[in-house]
Structure formats: C-alpha cells, structure tokens
Amino acid sequence: QLQLVESGGDLVQPGGSLRLSCAGSGFRTGYTVQFYAVAWFRQAPGKEREGLSCISTTGGTNYADSVKGRVTISRDNAKNTVYMQMNNLKQEDTAVHYCAENMTAGQPICTMRPHSKEWGQGNQVTVAS
C-alpha cells in the first residue's frame, strides 16, 4: 500500500522560504518513487483543494499558475522522497499542504487533479508577520 507522508510545514514570514518533504513507502515490488507521478496540493479553510505541482516518472514538472515561478518540485530517488521548495511566500499560501499520487487510467500521469481516496494529515504552512 503506497504511503506518502508530508513534513516540513511551519510558520514563516511573508517573503520567506520553506521546503516540504514527501516521504514514500509501500511501493510495488521492485518500484521506487521515480515510477510514480507525485503531486502537491493545498487546501485552505473554505476553499477547494488545489493542485500546485507535480513531477512525472521522467522528471518532468507541472505547476499551477498561482505558484509558478515561486515553487520547485524535485525528487531524490535514493531517499524515495519528493520535495517542494517554496520561495517568496505570501499570506495567500497559508493552507494545509498534501502530497499524493497522480494517476489516470492506471498510468502515472501528472494531472494535478485531487484523487477521491482518503488523504493524509498533511502539513500546515502558515505565512504571517
């Protein structure tokens, strides 16, 4: 059973930076994190869950317009971990952040659409003075 666990959320000042980590485990036999498309999402109170970034099996990346230019998603295959570096953070970035598998028709595809399965606890990012 694939498990992705977020960490690194914190309280930061506007304009600050933060790096979130997504540690993977429970892969299919012989697989590592690079065989999955992994996306980052965020959800603020009263708002829809929003896709932010995704890294594909080939290392290609996708970004939402709301964070493009401020966010970089990356992957460390040896550590089976996906990261999201966030710079120039704004108050509007305050939300619970999640990482999750992206898949379409049984294939690992970066869609940045939320899945319908149960979500993990996520990590709170708070941007405030």
Structural commentary:
0% of the residues lie in helices and 43% in strands. The protein has no helices and 10 strands. Strand 4 and strand 5 form a beta hairpin. It has strands at 3-7, 11-12, 18-25, 37-43, 50-55, 61-63, 71-76, 81-86, 95-102, 123-127. Strands 2-10-9-4-5-6 form a 6-stranded mixed β-sheet, with no helix packed on it. A 4-stranded antiparallel β-sheet has the order 1-3-8-7, with no helix packed on it. The protein is mostly beta strands. The model has no long low-confidence stretch (mean pLDDT 96).
Summary tags:
single chain; 129 residues; mainly beta; 6-stranded mixed sheet; 4-stranded antiparallel sheet; globular
Structure, briefly:
This protein has strands at 3-7, 11-12, 18-25, 37-43, 50-55, 61-63, 71-76, 81-86, 95-102, 123-127.
Can you tell me the residue ranges where pLDDT is under 50 for at least 5 consecutive residues? none
Number of strands: 10
Q: How much of the residues is beta strand, in percent?
A: 35-45%
Shape: globular
What's the mean pLDDT score? 96
Major sheet description: 6 strands, mixed
- With strands numbered from the N-terminus, the spatial order across the biggest sheet is 2-10-9-4-5-6
Distance between the termini: 40 Å
Category from helices, strands and their pairing? mainly beta
Helix and strand sequence: EEEEEEEEEE
Helix share, percent: under 10%
Whole-angstrom Rg: 14 Å
Number of helices: 0
Task: List strands and helices in order, with pairings.
Blueprint: E1 3-7, E2 11-12, E3 18-25, E4 37-43, E5 50-55, E6 61-63, E7 71-76, E8 81-86, E9 95-102, E10 123-127
Parallel strand pairs: 2-10
Antiparallel strand pairs: 1-3, 3-8, 4-5, 4-9, 5-6, 7-8, 9-10
